[in-house]
Amino acid sequence: MVTFVDMTLFAPFTGTLYLPDKEFLAASTPVLLPDGRPVAGVVWHTWTQRFEITDATGSIVAECRPEGFFRRRFPVRTLDGRRVIELVPGAWRPFNGAELTLASGGRLAVRQISLWSDRKFEFYGPQGLVGRILPTTGTFTFRPDSYAFEVLMPVMSALEAVSIAQALRLVARGNRSAAAASV
Prior knowledge:
The longest helix has 24 residues. The protein is 13% helix and 37% strand. It is globular and about 40 Å long. With 183 residues, the protein is mostly beta strands. A twelve-stranded antiparallel sheet has the order 1-12-11-10-9-8-7-6-5-4-3-2, covered by helices on one side.
């Protein structure tokens, strides 16, 4: 039996969160601390690109319902409607041109670290580098979007970090699907 760590997802966070990619036919994935203990979960709705984030008890604390057709928006909100984050991919460069707004209204710049990989990102605030997402699996695996999110400064909550990683996963998967369809 897996027990969740009792952690306040809304408090400022520093450290690393591991976000395994979705397994085939699985409806959810855990969010893990470096020692392997789960602190939250992500419930996937693959066909609609929606997702929910659950707390340690399995209760839904936030959800994302993408908006827009041509220029998608990925707002993540608490169940009472408060913004957790909003990610708007860039029109020409989805990652480097993205607009990322946190719950506080603060903005972070998203930088794709590698031109060859849509799985490595850095986040910058006025104080400099505040976090990065790095893949934990190889590119050519069945679960390519397994991430480690290193939050270096307490400018976001664990809930915001999970929301950012999951929204970026959706953008990356959408880009890969579009590229595959155009071939």
